[in-house]
């Protein structure tokens, strides 16, 4: 069997490619190693009814995978650590139909124009390979606009003075602000910052046949029970509705097959545990920034640049407890952002110079809060102290958190490769992550941490602390603090015009194999300080249009995107 | 009647959980709230069909809609392998030992409860605490699961009738009602 395209991975990248290729008339097969909890198995154009406000299943029992017992990853900070210092969960994003889009709370800002020209705007940094992207913000803008419509993004044009130019307004107005965010954005404004409603991939009004978010509060790390989150259910449903897409869940692609300068298809292991092959005229690789290089390495494509320049975001979180309840367990997890700390000012330039750096950048700051009760309880000691904690509830009811997603420079020593000893349950070598931050991230974090704290103090916090991920105090061997927790994972298959210094070209094609297109954040030459998802979806859209010879869709009339809500809120279907 | 634990293990576990989340001031302790059942149902998850690992969706019925949490999900082949490894351990099955042997929760609970002593329920609370602190790893294991049982959805066997949530003023799973915009944005 030969199809027009095989798509590996059903996350935001793969789903976007499936949507655009099927609309252009291509037949595609989407392979996803995780299970399908997203689409109704009886009618894949409808959302399933399996997501729920259930802390046990989502936060404590790996419902969306990957389960680290059967699909572990390994970690070390540098080669001097030996083969590895940790086996288990490392930067894992859900492995399920829909990928990380299913449980992200979906802050989806665009990058800014200078993010695409880091080297020419700011210049080099010792120990990092700072690069420009082979395309500009203006090249990507029409695709940003297209994926904002196809996912369904709520936001307010003009509210962020640092944003790049937009050709269209946001498809939906912003959703309601959290009470705590009203306090923290007012405090930030008093200190001269410019907070704005986070562009969010959750419906603020009925859109695309899905209802408006009803603020249930089980948002980041949970699937949305009413499918108010559009990413990627919107794109997958549309692809399924064309009748030209087939979804193969619980199916692991174990190799891309190559002949000469082309890929001929894939080898995969289905739920039956047996290896099969499928022919394809093109392969779209969208397995995520860790699994995509792993698959190329499993396919025998050893090349010094495959897996190199892994980036996450260096997270600096200022945490503060207010004297009164903020009920941050209502509504979406984060409702506001500010970009001042990515853009920088005289003080940050001086701090960079004092830290021996030519320049530095922080990241977007998320205004959010609060933990779920099981997670909260586990943080307190047992005995009477349990109740003291739970009744006063600083962590769940009174906490506010400002998280800076700090730009992570591309270091050549931060990599994904195949672990020489650890396998997954299917028998394939797992991804090994070798990662430690560059001095740039540490200097930026040290500079901005106290400034984040100052906002919390202005807000009226009783106490504050600053935590970072990866942890700053990590001694050798303290693996639990050295593993970065950011789920923004980028780099590893760098995009560029020069095959000597990059893996894919500006159209997302592997330099060596022109019918293999990478459609995830692997291709990012730099990490910026914004969530990667909208940008990777826009790149996937652009790559898919270039494959199919089509262009970005123009905005549909408003009545075409709002409408009834065909979502089953009745009994869950238990697939056989 | 416990599903997997013996009666005497169940009694020791109840006493241990009650030291960690004690009753008092009109609040339920862990045992009253069903926490030992939560742990017993996890250890005995494969005594049920489908195994009681993931409750169903999309709503519980507590805030409207038709209750679906009680319909536990079927496990795929890889899910079943993972959860049997986690609960039962590798127990010599070669297909569970691809990265070496795994000790399961059943054995960790069985050994840990035995080490608390056959007289654990009869000694003083201070002595119970001292024995629980003797093996911090086991203490942490029990407490982690006790918190899950106290504040997880009642369908998993703990948090009986929402007693844990009531004690801390948490509304629980609020779909399909959700919260109004005012409830989100006002103090
Ligand atoms: C709690 C949380 C909150 C987040 N919030 C945000 C946010 O607010 N904003 C933001 O921008 N980002 C956020 N993210 C990150 C976001 O989830 C990712 O950027 C996004 O999912 C990446 O999309 P992707 O398509 O590249 O890859 P993924 O979503 O990782 O999808 C890849 C899919 O491919 C499958 N796969 C991998 N290998 C194979 C194989 N060999 N065969 C078959 N299938 C395979 C995987 O199972 C997976 O489902 C968040 C993540 C988490 C965990
Ligand atoms: S807060 Fe809104 S978007 Fe998030 S899970 Fe609940 S209903 Fe869905």
Q: How does this structure look, described?
A:
The complex is a heterodimer of chains A (576) and B (187). Chain A is α/β, with parallel strands linked by helices. Chain A has helices at 12-23, 55-60, 118-122, 137-151, 179-190, 233-241, 291-298, 340-343, 346-354, 373-379, 384-392, 439-459, 479-482, 533-548, 558-561; strands at 2-8, 28-31, 39-40, 43-47, 73-76, 86-88, 196-197, 245-248, 252-259, 262-269, 275-285, 314-321, 334-338, 363-368, 399-406, 415-423, 429-434, 463-469, 516-518. Chain A has a domain at 1-73 and 92-155 and 201-311 and 491-552: 3-Layer(bba) Sandwich (FAD/NAD(P)-binding domain). Chain A contains 15 helices and 19 strands. In chain A, helix 1 (12-23) links the parallel strand 1 (2-8) and strand 2 (28-31). In chain A, helix 1 runs parallel beside helix 14 (533-548), helix 4 packs across helix 14 and helix 5 packs across helix 12 (439-459). Chain A is globular, with a radius of gyration of 22 Å. Helices cover 44% and strands 0% of the residues of chain B. Chain B has one domain. Chain B is mainly alpha-helical and 187 residues long. Chain B has helices at 7-20, 35-43, 77-88, 105-115, 125-134, 136-151, 163-168, 181-185. In chain B, helix 2 (35-43) packs across helix 6 (136-151). Chains A and B meet through helix 2, helix 10 and helix 11 of A and helix 3, helix 6, helix 7 and helix 8 of B. The site of iron/sulfur cluster has 14 residues of chain A, from loops.
